[in-house]
Amino acid sequence: RRPAARMAALEADEAGAALDHVITQFNSYDDYLDSQITTQDLFYLENEEMARQLVELGFRGSGEVLKREEFEARKAAAEASRLSERTQQKTLSSAGKELKDNFLKALAEREEANRSGKMASIIFIRDRNSRGQEVSAYIDYAHRLKVDEFEIYFNGKKKLFPRRTDLSFYNWDRNVTTSNASPNYQVIAENACGLLFKNKCDRKIVNVDPKAYPGDSTTRTPIETDLYLHVVIYDHILRRKT
């Protein structure tokens, strides 16, 4: 019985999808009715409106005819679904991109959560700048998503790179360091435990010491990548009250 029920449900879903596909081809319910009116119907009735009414009532046309309310409801739902897909693709810079490097894949996996506020990831990047100097930074990913155009990063036209304006920046060759609070994190630099970041939403601490516990609701993930010398991502999950 269960396989038969699943088969029936599958057939119903397929029929519904086919019907939705048909509905999207028409701008209005009247256009839908007109598609089922034949030239012979118009010849005998000599009235287009009457022909539509006969189709709607089921006296003319081929197969079962949708009522106006169902047609309009299905059409509205189909249009809303398409709009939602377009909006998501427009919002997510990684949508539709062919990503080969693990770092870009990791960013893409976290993009929606960081944009929506479900997650506040901190990205640690260590690499060499254009002068050959070794630099590193802890980057507030959610903040960078708002101020940077990430299309160029996901397209591979430019690299996401450490800046002096990031949460913490360090030039290893010149021994220059800077720290800055972001909309999501407060920097706690002078601490016996080393560098800490305090999330401004839930006030929990993120500890970036690789030998220490990263903190409640935080996971530490090293990323193997060909783009940088060293990359680690700290994912802090935010549990907001509803």
TrEMBL record:
Keyword terms of this UniProt record: Cell projection, Cilium, Cytoplasm, Flagellum, Nucleus
One Pfam family recorded for the sequence: DUF4464
Subcellular location: Cytoplasm; Nucleus
GO cellular component terms, semicolon-separated: cytoplasm; nucleus
Cross-referenced PANTHER family: CILIA- AND FLAGELLA-ASSOCIATED PROTEIN 299
Protein purpose: May be involved in spermatogenesis.
Name of the protein this chain belongs to: Cilia- and flagella-associated protein 299
Upper classification of the organism: Eukaryota, Metazoa, Chordata, Craniata, Vertebrata
Gene: CFAP299
